Amino acid sequence: SEPDSDEVIPSSKFWKDSETRALFYFLAEHFDMYRKNKTKFYATAAIEIGNNRTSAQ
């Protein structure tokens, strides 16, 4: 669900710059997987990037 406009989102939920960069690099290397099977891509990226992220994040 969408957060209320006055709801505070903990900073622990934000991706660090290094995590975002890693995701972009992973996407660049595995774009074919992303194009063909996004669910598999999300799961694999979550494992590769780590830092307690899930495929939903």
UniProtKB/TrEMBL annotation:
Q: What is this protein called?
A: 22250_t:CDS:1
Q: Which organism is it from?
A: Dentiscutata erythropus
